[in-house]
Amino acid sequence: MKIAIPVDEKSMESTVCQSFGRTPYYLFYDTEGGTSEFRDNSASASQGGAGIRAAQLIVDEKTDALLTPRCGENAAQVLRGAGVKIYKTINNSVRDNIEAFKEGKLNELKKIHPGFHNHRG
Amino acid sequence: MKIAVLSGKGGTGKTLVSVNLAAAAKDSMYVDCDVEEPNGHLFFKPEEVKSRQVAVEIPLVDGDKCTGCRVCVDFCNYNALAWIGGELKIFDEICHSCGGCIVLCPEKALKGKEKVVGQVQRGKSEGVTVFTGMLNPGVASGVPIIKELLKETGGKEQIFIDCPPGSACIVMETVAAADYCILVAEPTLFGVHNLSMVWELVKHMGKPCGVVLNKCLEEENPAEKFCAEKGIEIIGSIPFDSELGLLNSNALIAVRENAKYEKLFRDLLLRVTREVRP
């Protein structure tokens, strides 16, 4: 199973990024092979609609599940449309979340926020 | 002459200045381009109001023609389109209706459909023609409404444009149409920071401008200091007084209620006229 996590740095020791759409990198992790790959998020500097573009990236990578602390409405529409499951991370540690996911301990992300759309204040 | 009334931030007194200048000019036009929260009409209470809807064109996909080439998805700067599960998904509320995707689609699978984004209203208040733009909630950009408003700002000698706050695209649209810009400033550091941004914008666009200091107190005024440093002309000042505040918060036009304020804004109007036509 291929999972994706927004991360602050290109390292397995990195913290989970608090923003799904504007995270600098994604970690793609294969739970069977235990292989990992870091990719730049080309959506991070978007004028608008970063969540949509980021979700497109996740979908194009044929990801099965996304592990994230938060996710906006538009991004969620894209992800769900492509059958990507969204799980809520439990803490900031990439490793902890991968382990929890493997053990089936992560819950699906229920709270989808309406998006910030430049009104972060 | 078209006078744009601007300020870097909201709440400095753009509406106070533009409404009262238009009222002082008597035979004039007031154009409310603050389409996200237009409130000039609350003061003028215009009569014989006629409204008209404003629509933009957004893309509509023909699923049979779309081959999933993603030219549109890659082109869109606002990421309003996504290709998911073999279908093109269009996010209407993200689209800025530039029409680029429709032009670029090699399969001609996209065509335009109308989306109403707001309305413009025109009415009369004594000698003032009151023209108001209103953006519907949830719509991304008020620019199409401002374009519609500015298209019709003819027929009067003196036109006052109440601009949106800030210095983004929507403000640039209104500045572009103006002969002269009045920058309303309040005596706070935050106010000066935003005044500086809007002044940079006006300067960049090559428009002549002057500052009106609002809410003036006896103490030192950071906005005044900023103007002195940058060599910006101060064309008027309005005191921070409770009488004016009370009139304004009761949605009354100070110029029409009190001779003292009529003189203040008539003097400002004369000064502005001299600046525009020396």
Can you put this structure into words, describing what you see?
The complex is a heterodimer of chains A (121) and B (278). With 121 residues, chain A is of the alpha/beta class. Chain A has one domain (2-102): Dinitrogenase iron-molybdenum cofactor biosynthesis domain (Nucleotidyltransferase, domain 5, 2-Layer Sandwich). Helix content of chain A is 24%, strand content 21%. Chain A has three helices and five strands, in the order βββαβαβα. Chain A has helices spanning 50-60, 73-81, 94-102, and strands at residues 2-7, 25-30, 36-40, 65-68, 85-88. Chain A has a five-stranded mixed beta sheet with strand order 3-2-1-4-5, with helices on both faces. The longest helix of chain A is centred in the middle third of the chain and has 11 residues, at 50-60. Chain A starts with a strand and ends in a 19-residue tail after the last helix. With 278 residues, chain B is of the alpha/beta class. Chain B has two domains: 2-54 and 118-276, Rossmann fold, CATH 3.40.50; 63-108, Alpha-Beta Plaits (2-Layer Sandwich). Chain B has helices at 14-25, 40-44, 71-75, 100-104, 143-151, 169-176, 189-204, 222-230, 242-249, 254-257, 259-276; strands at residues 2-6, 28-32, 47-61, 81-84, 87-90, 110-125, 128-135, 159-162, 180-185, 209-216, 234-239. The longest helix of chain B has 18 residues, at 259-276. Chain B starts with a strand and ends with a helix. The model of chain B has no long low-confidence stretch (mean pLDDT 94). Classes of the chains: A alpha/beta (121), B alpha/beta (278). The A-B interface holds A 43, 46-50, 52-53, 55-56, 59, 74, 77-78, 81-83, 117 and B 73, 76-80, 82-85, 87, 89, 91, 94, 140.
